[in-house]
Structure formats: structure tokens, C-alpha cells
Amino acid sequence: MTWTARFHKIHSKLDEKGIHFVVASRNQYFQLKDYFTEYNDIDYITENGALIRNPKKVYVVHSFSEDAVKHIESFLIKQKEINFLVCGKNAAYALNKCLKNILNFQIIIIII
What we know:
Helix content is 32%, strand content 18%. With 112 residues, the chain is α+β, with helices and mostly antiparallel strands. A four-stranded mixed beta sheet has the order 1-2-3-4, with no helix packed on it. A two-stranded antiparallel sheet has the order 5-6. Strand 1 (22-24), helix 2 (29-32) and strand 2 form a beta-alpha-beta unit. The protein starts with a helix and ends in a 12-residue tail after the last helix.
């Protein structure tokens, strides 16, 4: 049985009992929602808690100021050994130098 079939059974049982399923992960919302495309009733706590939403509504976005993002990014760009990913409410961004080393990410999540 595939994980999607197993999850469907679990989700159905949770629904029967009135239990709301919530995904909690350090991963990005747009990555996670692809795993649960047929479930519009799931809420997501993503980006280590920085973004809380479901497919229809954004509940909370904890973000850095634009100045803080510029400061952090300028510092990280100078660190040759660090590959980083900047995550926003609608997408994630990486510098070309980081994409070349995608398997060696030291992921730093910044919501902008």
C-alpha cells in the first residue's frame, strides 16, 4: 500500500472522529501542499512555524523586516561555505551559487 493510500485511510478515520489534521514541518508550504493535493481541509505549520496557513487562508506570517533580510543576505553571501535558501510567503529563492551545491544546503529560512 502506498503512503497516499495509507494516509487516505488515516485521514478518513480522523474525519469520522472530528479530528482536524495539521501538517507541521520545517519545509516550505508549496512543497508540502503537493503531498496533500486532494485535501483542502488541512492546515499547515511550515517554515519552522513562520508560516501558518491552509490552501484558502493565511493565518500567520512571521517575517523579518526588509532591512534585516538585506543585512542577513549580504552577510550570508560572503560566507563561501554556506548555501542558503530564502523563503517567502509565495515562493523560495536561491542564488545560482547555492543551486550548484543543492545537495549541500545549510538551509536558513527567511520569510520575506
